[in-house]
Write a structure and sequence with these properties.
This protein has about 325 residues and is α+β, with helices and mostly antiparallel strands. Helices cover about 40% and strands about 20% of the residues. Among the domains are: about 160 residues, Jelly Rolls (Sandwich); about 60 residues. The strands form 2 sheets. It has a 7-stranded antiparallel sheet. Strands 2-5-10-7-8 form a 5-stranded antiparallel sheet. Strand 3 and strand 4 form a beta hairpin.
């Protein structure tokens, strides 16, 4: 399929709907446009299904590649100050940089330096992967002797790498729903987790896991606020979108002395309260506002509203200078 029109922070492309003979040409065109640093391998079938996200201080490429070489020519792309962290979720990749060459497989990762000249990551067979390009200035303070840690495979099963890839999986699906402030926080956690994957310590691992929990909760809250109008929204649905269990979501809210249900209800009531006071919505009935913020039971809405604001929806509308009789 043709590349999706990129937003300010994302880009997606797949060859699934392209004839086999046209896939290499499509990849060349994306390379020429500076969208994907990929080059087809001779005598190999090309397959691409990727998403590219841009956060403050990190760009993320994830998906599946086959029959391709991914590279980063420092001079050509002007990224001499960047580091690249590649994770193989499934499959094997071969990395060449200068005179050095390594192969890494399922669950392994490797840090590469764009300052050391061209590097190439060849994936002849299908590989499911995540790659992160991060300016050196963000990682160097976090990783002692960072240049000595490049071209070394991080073994499979490393806990920080698992935390990182799970975190990024949810981010890929929700990126366009998150605010710039939330994305900046997430980028900071990504930097910490990459650093911890390269130079792990026990204290840092505990800190990183706590940071991920806090960031996951912020991301889940953003998702909930963006879905208030869905009257079927449930903890199970939100958990599935974030690839965690409902119990895990409950525990995240419990860590703040709250519950998922309470948070959802309060955010719906807050939105209804703002809508009732909005002069632009004077023609909207109280009933329609209740339904628009996700309540499917008007009696429940009225009771919950009174408990939260010690006033009825009609009282709030009247106080804002509108006709309180517009309730149905």
């Amino acid at each position: 399929m043709p590349p999706a029109a990129p937003t300010a922070g994302s880009f997606r492309f797949s060859t699934d709907d392209l004839p086999v003979c046209a896939r290499g040409i499509a990849v060349h065109r994306l390379r020429e446009r500076g969208l994907l640093p990929l080059e087809p391998l001779a005598d190999h079938a090309v397959h691409v299904r990727v998403a590219k996200l841009f956060l403050p201080g990190v760009s993320i490429l994830s998906g599946t590649l086959a029959g391709l070489r991914q590279d980063a020519a420092a001079r050509a792309h002007g990224i001499t100050g960047d580091l690249f962290f590649a994770v193989n979720l499934a499959g094997r990749s071969n990395v060449v940089q200068g005179q050095r060459e390594i192969t890494f497989g399922d669950g392994e990762a490797v840090l590469l330096s764009c300052a050391d000249g061209d590097f190439g990551v060849a994936r002849a067979e299908p590989v499911r992967f995540v790659g992160l390009r991060i300016p050196r200035k963000h990682l160097a303070p976090l990783i002692p002797d960072v240049d000595d840690r490049t071209m070394r495979a991080v073994p499979p099963g490393a806990h920080p790498v698992k935390l990182l890839t799970g975190y990024l999986a949810a981010l890929t699906e929700l990126h366009d729903l998150l605010s710039p402030a939330t994305l900046r926080v997430i980028a900071g956690h990504v930097h910490d987790l990459v650093a911890l994957s390269i130079a792990p310590t026990r204290d840092a691992a505990a800190f990183a896991e706590a940071s991920v929990r806090a960031a996951r909760l912020r991301t889940i809250k953003s998702d909930v606020v963006g879905s208030l109008e869905d009257c079927t929204l449930s903890v199970a649905a939100v958990a599935a979108r974030h690839r965690v269990t409902p119990r895990y979501v409950h525990k995240l809210f419990e860590s703040e002395g709250a519950t998922f249900t309470r948070f959802l209800t309060e955010r719906r009531l807050d939105r209804a309260h703002r809508m009732l006071r909005d002069e632009r919505l004077v023609a909207r009935t109280i009933t329609s506002i209740a339904y628009d913020v996700g309540f499917n039971d008007l009696s429940h809405f009225n009771r919950a509203f009174r408990r939260r604001y010690h006033a009825t929806p009609s009282d709030v509308r009247a106080a804002a200078g509108r006709d309180p009789t517009r309730d149905g």
